[in-house]
Specification:
This protein is mainly α. Helix content is 69%, strand content 0%. It is elongated.
Amino acid sequence: MSHLAILPVGKRAQTKVQNRTAILDAAREVFGEIGYEPCTVRDIIRRTGLAAGTFYNYFKSKEEVFAALADDGARRFAPILKALRSQNADFEGFVRAALQAYFQFLADEHQQWADRREAEEHLYVHGQTPEMEAVFNEVRAAILDEIARGAAPAADADYLAGACIAIAREVGEQMVSRRPVDVGGATAFSTALILSGLKGLPQAQSKPASAR
């Protein structure tokens, strides 16, 4: 897994890394299957096969587990998004590239999760994993930055970011439920929908944060 570094030499250190990884992998599956809100620490522990005391040696709550997974997702995606922003001078190119990167990340996360359930055909993540949530937030922040620096249409920044995120989230959910998972199709559809919608938007800057 991406968060698993080279194991330390000592046996105790190896066990610590393996236990932590087992907890994070189990949490990722539980969050993906039933969602963050409904799941409990007990659901995560049950999936690991570890004792409850072992779990609490590493994390105090499911909130801490979620944060650890989200940090990993943001850490992996942030440099990808940064590179895209430097490579695309116009907003349309950035939107297309950002959507493709998000959908590819979503597909890759889904594939890693599904590979551990090979016997179950057409299995897909029904909820958002923490990594997906973190990546989503990275995309939102980038859109707001593009608007702030004048590279994006002068529309309501919050509404525009929210609409782009909502489209990507819902299209992404449909994408991973299909076979084959079509990143290109999802990207083309979402890009066209967002860019065509921008043409009909009233051109008005959103209020500064301090004025809200």
